[in-house]
Design goal:
This protein is of the alpha+beta class and 160 residues long. It has seven helices and five strands; from the N terminus they run ααββαββαβααα. Helix 5 packs across helix 7. The protein is globular and about 50 Å long.
């Protein structure tokens, strides 16, 4: 449905689309300009003048650090020992107001934590640090280990 609305808007020229080369040229020009006026890219789509101006909430998220989510449809994560817990707020505003089932807690499997770490770290300019990966996730980061995690995530089974 969303794709159909998008295509209809594009066809009615309410949305302009450019070819990929023009989009890439535009982005590269924008990035060069931002760098020239003192903004440095720290994430795939974010720039800041210095570290103190980076989005601290997003940095915590991208590093799989604990963060709080408050309110309907919110998400927070925290660690309890070696357990990685995700807290999700009910999407129903009325249930939230009525204090019914405000949050659901879910313990993520180690494989899910690793996949999430890989996904979010690929948003960062500095990428995945193999030493932090091994220290925090207690598994060495190699092409083989990553492929093994994705295999078990897709096909199930136990992982060791």
């Amino acid at each position: 449905m969303k794709r159909e609305r998008f295509l209809q808007k594009r066809d009615n020229q309410l949305i302009l689309s450019y070819d990929e080369d023009k989009e890439r040229e535009f982005l590269e020009t924008l990035w060069d300009y931002l760098e020239s006026i003192g903004f440095h890219q720290y994430e795939i789509s974010n720039f800041a003048r210095d570290e103190s101006h980076q989005c601290k909430h997003n940095i915590r998220y991208w590093n799989l650090e604990d963060y709080i989510g408050i309110g309907p449809s919110s998400v927070g994560t925290f660690h309890v020992g070696n357990h990685f817990i995700r807290q999700t707020g009910t999407p129903s505003i009325q249930s939230y107001i009525d204090n019914r089932n405000r949050y659901v807690l879910e313990e993520l499997k180690k494989v899910d934590e690793i996949v999430e770490y890989i996904m979010v770290r690929l948003r960062m300019i500095d990428g995945i640090d193999k030493h932090i990966f091994k220290k925090d996730l207690t598994y060495p980061f190699t092409n083989y280990s990553v492929m093994k995690y994705f295999y078990y995530r897709k096909y199930g089974g136990t992982y060791s």
